[in-house]
Amino acid sequence: DRYQRRVRVSHVHHRKGPARHRALDFAERHGYIKGVVKEIIHDPGRGAPLARVLFRHAYKYRHEKELFIAAEGMYTGQFVYCGRKAQLTVGNVLPLISLPEGTIVCNVECKLGDRGCFARCSGNYATVISHNTDDGTTRIKLPSGAKKVVPSNSRAMVGIVAGGGRIDKPLLKAGNAFHKYRVKRNSWPKVRGVAMNPVDHPHGGGNHQHIGHPSTVRRDAPAGQKVGLIAARRTGRIRGTSTVKADLTE
Question: Is the alpha carbon torsion for 119, 125, 126, 128 positive or negative?
Fold first, then answer.
């Protein structure tokens, strides 16, 4: 196996290609362009399905094939519209400034023209919180719950990413975990540090499996020593009820 001795190298042999928006052009900046979903396909190592969308070339007599992350509800034969003047429909790609506050979007650009950066995993979505027309920025809520300010002309697809609920079903057995990570990267199974020898890991050795020193480690520790709870602000079980402070900036 070509990946056998290399750790955490992505296994990309059967991948379908980079899933992203169209390259930004005049049609998207000033109007819209129509495409048709030719097929919904599985991409090995990715939880979300992909949509192969066919567009007419803007300047030459030929077609362009694009690979989009499929939004939930997309189907083959569906027309999708990309551009500033496209309608607010699931599967369409619009700049954030064209979307009302509260819109659910996915595959959001961080910078104009980067072709999609946030909310790309199966079942994920971002929410448009507010627009600031003075400086041309839009505030969005990311799947992590964090809020981020991005340019208002950044593009996003309307809807949530298809393939949601994937982690609701347990893997149940090691064979399923093996096949899950076989197409991703060599990151499974993981051997515990305390089960190793001292030469192999900072937690290794001892007559009983124990770490033997605090598991926290400083941020600027050298590679090889930097294992455990890195730059931990606190450790231990979180006890009591958490109080959620209202976001005053909304």
Answer: positive
